[in-house]
Amino acid sequence: MDLIEFCKKCRRRAFEVYSSAVCRNRKIFLLLVVLFPFLYYLWSRLMLSMQPARGLWDDHPAFYLLEYSLENKLMMLQKSVDEFNANIQHEPLNPDENPFLPFVGNGLFGVVIKQDSVIYLRKDRVLTLPLNYHPIVWVEFELMSKTARALDYVNGVAHTVSCYMNNICITSQYYAHRTLPNIFIQDIEVVNPASYNAKVYLSREAFNQDSWAQVEVGSVKLTKSDVGARNGSEEYDTVIGPVINEFDEFYVSIIAMRIPTHFYVKPKSKTSLQILTAICES
């Protein structure tokens, strides 16, 4: 009889322990069910914060077509990238890309390839003396776009490639001339495979006279015999002023092609434009 009672007590005790464990596990499960959405939200926000910034249109289906068009344009530099002779930067940067500044120069002057870049002159064998003039011309088209910049270390040429809706593509090449060391060149090409005229906008950072003491600003019209103008004559802006560094004072003259605010590219065609800027020291 005692043995039977003992077995019953053991069974009741085991049932109580089991019921208590089931109740405790049920509470834990319900707590996890309640907390899981909140924890998942925090985790997703953390993962998003670690990703590169994305634009408003990045999830639009057409955006993937833009990426495809852009990568096709960049294929010409892929071999150089594989051989570590070039660097490509998408906007925004891809996770595996280096944030190096695309810079072109020839020992006399240098320019960083961004819209608000100034001209850097030589100071103590290094191009670190800023000259507050902005030579870069920015080219834009009013459609959704995807852009990348590239720098070819071997040839000393920087590239900007922008692909837009309807396969319209704008490329710019920037380089400091080697045989004519005072010349900075920007070659622009716009390809319009669409069936309508493409209106392309040009802009350059405005020159601030107050930032350069005793500067003189003017303009000059040069004919075809002077600079090989395409339309008989072209107008150039001139900037002349003194530059003072730690050791001496010298004058710098800048002659830059005056750009239109916009131009049109005919359907099924392409248009090229070369922007010249001369920087002379005396």
Could you say how many structural domains there are in total? 2
Overall shape: elongated
Terminal residue distance: 120 Å
Secondary-structure element string: HHHEEEEEEEEEEEEHEEEE
- Low-confidence residue ranges: 50-57
Beta-strand fraction estimate = 35-45%
What would you report as the Rg, rounded to the nearest angstrom? Answer: 32 Å
Number of strands: 16
Q: Give the averaged pLDDT, no decimals.
A: 81
Helix content: 25-40%
Strand order of the main beta sheet, please? 1-7-8-9-10-16-14-13-12
Treating each run of at least 4 consecutive H or I residues as one helix, how many helices? 4
Descriptive account of the structure:
The protein has 282 residues and is α+β, with helices and mostly antiparallel strands. The chain has 2 domains: 1-51, no CATH class; 62-281, Beta-galactosidase, Chain A, domain 5 (Distorted Sandwich), CATH 2.70.98. Helices cover 25% and strands 41% of the residues. The protein has helices at residues 2-49, 61-74, 78-82, 224-227, and strands at 86-91, 103-105, 109-112, 119-123, 126-131, 137-140, 145-152, 157-164, 169-176, 183-192, 198-204, 216-223, 233-244, 249-257, 262-265, 269-281. The strands form 3 sheets. A 9-stranded antiparallel beta sheet has the order 1-7-8-9-10-16-14-13-12. Strands 2-3-4-5 form a 4-stranded antiparallel beta sheet, with no helix packed on it. Strands 6-11-15 form a 3-stranded antiparallel beta sheet, with no helix packed on it. A hairpin with a 4-residue loop joins strand 13 and strand 14. The longest helix has 48 residues, at 2-49. It is elongated, with a radius of gyration of 32 Å. It starts with a helix and ends with a strand. The chain crosses the membrane at residues 28-48. Keywords: Glycoprotein, Membrane, Signal, Transmembrane, Transmembrane helix.
